[in-house]
Design brief:
alpha/beta; Rossmann fold; five-stranded parallel beta sheet; 8 helices; 9 strands; binds 3'-phosphate-adenosine-5'-phosphate sulfate; binds adenosine-5'-diphosphate
């Protein structure tokens, strides 16, 4: 795989043509304003916060709490929520393994663009397969992919069931539902784990958001 670029050879601007996947003879165009300049403008560093977990584990709730907490600190974020992206960009994808992989790949690529724009991109998607999440991690500079695992037992997610999907899955009306008759592979080495508290007092979404914010602060993402 060749990355196309422009080179100055003997005073002449020569294009280097590349073939990427099915795209042939393409050229990479550099932007006139670079990532560092955008980050300076925003006073933050672009990154991807990848929230993974079962349906009902609290991904979207955390994404919203986090986005709000960042906004109150004058930090710009943007949420890519699995459910929402499937209303548009990924509306042609089903829940079979290959389509879930393509769903995650596209969201990973879009998240990478947001991070390059200097934005703190929050992806909240089940992303059940480790290799698909790892492929998204590999798209970004080391350290810029922050995997957050919503470590909530299936039994709790199922008891919440805000959309009634577990009920339908148990009744056999939805096939291939994650956690019921489709796999979920928990992360082995993620940056942040948010664990359900066995004493039945879960951390509040705001407390969870603060845990993630502490990580961002510690790693220097909240300054240029
Ligand atoms: N079969 C099956 N399995 C899992 N989830 C299902 C399924 N069918 C529909 N839904 C609804 O789709 C939401 C998950 O979409 P994602 O794009 O995050 O899924 S994935 O990452 O491609 O696995 C998920 O949203 P959340 O509950 O917010 O996780 C469900 O509402
Ligand atoms: N930290 C939490 N403690 C208790 N309930 C929560 C928490 N986070 C989310 N919930 C509730 O759990 C349900 C599922 O949350 P949601 O964010 O939609 O999960 P997901 O996006 O993973 O499907 C909702 O009814 C929500 O109010």
């Amino acid at each position: 795989m060749l990355m196309g670029s422009r080179q100055l050879l003997g005073g002449k601007n020569v294009c280097q043509l590349a073939n990427i996947g099915q795209s042939t003879n393409i050229v990479w165009h550099k932007s006139s304003v670079d990532k560092l300049a955008r980050q300076e403008l925003l006073q933050q560093k672009g990154c991807v916060i990848w929230i993974t977990g079962l349906s009902g584990s609290g991904k979207s709730t955390l994404a919203c709490a986090l986005s709000r907490a960042l906004y109150s600190r004058s930090k710009l974020s943007y949420i890519l929520d699995g459910d929402n992206i499937r209303h548009g960009l990924n509306r042609n994808l089903s829940f079979k393994a290959e389509d879930r992989a393509e769903n995650i790949r596209r969201i990973g690529e879009v998240a990478k663009l947001f991070a390059d724009a200097g934005i703190i991109c929050i992806a909240s998607v089940i992303s059940p397969y480790r290799k698909d999440r790892d492929a998204c991690r590999a798209m970004l500079p080391v350290g810029d992919f922050i995997e957050v695992f919503m470590d909530v037992p299936l039994q709790i997610c199922e008891s919440r069931d805000p959309k009634g999907l577990y009920k339908l899955a148990r009744a056999g009306k939805i096939k291939g539902f994650t956690g019921i008759d489709d796999p979920y592979e928990p992360p082995l080495n993620c940056e942040v784990t948010l664990q359900y508290n066995k004493n039945n007092c879960t951390s509040s979404p705001n407390d969870m958001a603060e845990t993630v914010i502490s990580y961002l602060e510690q790693k220097g993402f909240l300054q240029a």
